[in-house]
Amino acid sequence: MAGREDWWYDEAAGPLVRPYAMVRGRTRPLRPELHLVTQVRAMPSPSDPDALAVEHMEIMELCRRPLSVAEVAAYLDVPLVVVKVLLSDLIQRGDVVIRDPSRVPQVPDRNLLQAVLDGVRGI
Amino acid sequence: MVSVESERPGGELLVPTPVKIVIAGGFGTGKTTMVNSVSEIPPLHTEELLTEAGVGVDDVLGLESKETTTVALDFGRITISPEVVLYLFGTPGQNRFWFMWDELAFGAIGAVILVDTRRLDSSFPSIDFFERRGIPFIIAVNCFEGAHNYEVEEVRRALDVDTAIPLVLCDARDRESAKTVLVSLIQHTMDRLDAMA
């Protein structure tokens, strides 16, 4: 039986109760390199599955293939800030690897732009 | 600090380089339509939580308060190769969410500013935003049915944008047309890069 203890959730409680509960009100540290398009990829297996919450495991499952932070938030249907908290846990544990866009500075690499140009032409 | 490089020593775990293009413009100019036309997946939707003050929430303390606002973001994806993935983000409509615009613009290779000739002024804030930050952008005039078809130069004069900024006509609903817009933007970014070299 799932969720009987949730009976007191109502319109007045708002949609924020669950995200807040998912991260147990924890706040920091959020990894500064977690931007919208930062790529996240799960390691083949979590270091200690018993220590992970259901939401962590969902992220591990989703990120078997690389996904952006924004995609993870969209697929889990939770606000970005919540995903960033959960991902910060997983990075800390070494369960995911990331690549953030600050490696693509305001003046990006010409080869990268050429690759994007060719790619867009090819779709 | 823990290294967060893309690959383990064996190199077997590839993490692509993300690239971002922002699709900006006023309300109803066709931003989500354009994302939808070229994205390989149906546009995804996510939300960021902002406090009443419009400042980004970097913690979830206080999220239970009703003073919080959500900013909706719609975005699409084009996988360029196993090494590179392109994301297209539409800007949120309400101009008061500037915090979100900064996050959207961060690291972007450029922006497409969509313009509806019936409401040119709705795109002025977008133009100002990208001009001030020195982020490459082009203007794409979305040719809505029933709208008077202006000449490109008329629109340019009305928007008061420099001749160095490409201005193209498009139909945001049409995949090929939307592709052409993206190609124009990427070429413009490359031209600017070459000019600086």
Polypeptide structure, described:
The complex is a heterodimer of chains A (123) and B (197). Chain A is built from five helices and three strands; from the N terminus they run αβαβααβα. Chain A has 123 residues and is mainly alpha-helical. Chain A has one domain (14-122): Arc Repressor Mutant, subunit A (Orthogonal Bundle). A three-stranded antiparallel sheet of chain A has the order 2-1-3. The longest helix of chain A is centred in the C-terminal third of the chain and has 14 residues, at 80-93. Chain A is elongated and about 45 Å long. With 197 residues, chain B is α/β, with parallel strands linked by helices. Chain B has five helices and seven strands. Chain B has helices spanning 31-38, 98-105, 124-133, 152-159, 175-196, and strands spanning 17-25, 44-50, 69-79, 84-90, 110-115, 137-142, 167-170. A seven-stranded mixed sheet of chain B has the order 2-3-4-1-5-6-7, sandwiched between helices. In chain B, α3 links the parallel β5 and β6 (137-142). In chain B, α1 (31-38) packs across α5. The longest helix of chain B is centred in the C-terminal third of the chain and has 22 residues, at 175-196. Chain B is globular and about 55 Å long. Mean pLDDT of chain B is 84; it is low at 1-8 and 53-66. The interface between A and B is large, with 60 and 61 residues.
Q: What does the overall shape of chain B look like? A: globular
What is the strand content of chain A?
Answer: 5-15%
CATH topology of chain A: Arc Repressor Mutant, subunit A
CATH class of chain B: Alpha Beta
Strands in their spatial order, largest beta sheet of chain A: 2-1-3
Helix content of chain B: 25-40%
Count, helices of chain B = 5
- What is the total number of structural domains of chain B? 1
Mean pLDDT of chain B: 84
Radius of gyration of chain B: 18 Å
* Shape, principal axes of CA atoms of chain A: elongated
Q: What's the number of structural domains of chain A? A: 1
Q: How far apart, in Å, are the first and last alpha carbons of chain A?
A: 47 Å
Share of helix of chain A, binned: 40-55%
Secondary-structure content class of chain B: alpha/beta
Continuous helix count of chain A: 5
